[in-house]
From TrEMBL:
Domain HTH marR-type: 1-139
Recorded superkingdom: Bacteria
Tagged with keyword Transcription regulation: yes
Keyword list, A-Z: DNA-binding, Transcription, Transcription regulation
Pfam families documented for this protein: MarR
A single GO molecular function term of this UniProt record: DNA-binding transcription factor activity
Name of the featured protein: Transcriptional regulator, MarR family
Organism ancestry: Bacteria, Bacillati, Bacillota, Clostridia, Lachnospirales
Keyword Transcription regulation: yes
InterPro entries recorded: HTH_MarR-typ (IPR000835), Tscrpt_reg_MarR-type_CS (IPR023187), WH-like_DNA-bd_sf (IPR036388), WH_DNA-bd_sf (IPR036390)
Amino acid sequence: MKDKNWTDIVSKQGDLRHFASMAIRKSGKSEHTSAQEIDFLFRIALSEEPLTPRQITNAMGISKTIVSRLTDHLESKGFICKEASASDRRSYCIRITGAGKDEIDRMYYYYLDPLYTLQKNMKKEKFETLFQLIREANEILSSQKK
């Protein structure tokens, strides 16, 4: 082994997986919208302008294939609509529909409850530091992908 401390890193990876499994809820049996779909809808709804699939790919850190699947699935549910790009006829932008906004209203607390729990039970400074470090780590890992 190159790294003599690999067992420590494996333990940290386990901690990270455990945190992620508690912080990011899976869709319940009675729920039909996954956490990834809700994330997609949040990003579209919160954007000041319609987003392209490439922008969503970059923002979510997922492949174009997954964005295409999510787009098709959410469009079939009536939660989003595609609009042809005015500048490039080969491209399109994605907008949230009224039904998509209703779905966010219906599901957001279920998915955000773990973060609300952290916010309520951690000191504000620690909560903000946690997410500052997560953003920094995301930037480091994102830059390695390129």
